Amino acid sequence: xxxxxxxxxxxxxxxxxxxxxxxxxxxxxxxxxxxxxxxxxxxxxxxxxxxxxxxxxxxxxxxxxxxxxxxxxxxxxxxxxxxxxxxxxxxxxxxxxxxxxxxxxxxxxxxxxxxxxxxxxxxxxxxxxxxxxxxxxxxxxxxxxxxxxxxxxxxxxxxxxxxxxxxxxxxxxxxxxxxxxxxxxxxxxxxxxxxxxxxxxxxxxxxxxxxxxxxxxxxxxxxxxxxxxxxxxxxxxxxxxxxxxxxxxxxx
Length: 252
Ligand code: ZN
Known about the structure:
Blueprint: H1 11-32, H2 50-73, H3 83-93, H4 98-118, E1 127-129, E2 135-137, H5 140-155, H6 167-184, E3 190-194, E4 199-202, E5 210-214, H7 216-223, E6 232-234
Helix pairs in contact: 1-4, 1-5, 2-3, 2-4, 2-5, 6-7
The structure holds zinc ion (ZN).
């Protein structure tokens, strides 16, 4: 008998799973609002149509499901054979018929959900490897999926916005993004201030930083490279008279 509820009883993990499932439902809603012809339209990501976004989200669910199978069985099964294979798969997926694309999204999401649901409590701590080569416990896959579905729903560019994304997801995104800058050393003399949360990230050691500030949703939108409406800049990096907001360092 297959259980109809999650095997894990960890409250933190269950909350994370709920957030990922809500994000998937949010993406599904935005996707379903698009007509088949509208799928051909541009997304917010340069060079990608909405078809590419949808294919990417579908294949991402399959890739994460492979990690859960790995955690369950101990038999290594990577997300993708390589980044080239992943990119190629997305390009191919973008050429599918609208109905096939929609099925890809629906079926892969259901499959991943079943894999998560049936993963035994202790297997959630088994280590798997991400496409970036990071060794993480299987629990991390829930966040990996969450951030994809919430953010790429905005990238579909048919009405979803960063302020639709729950605050805990936005906060974690900002931690991820500023953490990536820090690792690469691209955050020198840059401070990011979230005005409605009392949060500060970036180069705390700088004597004369450029400070980019705004409400959480606007700051994450800027940091993710999706635009700069709603944020302001001050300091050496901002053009003195106009307060022009500099582009955020590259994230991914
Ligand atoms: Zn993505």
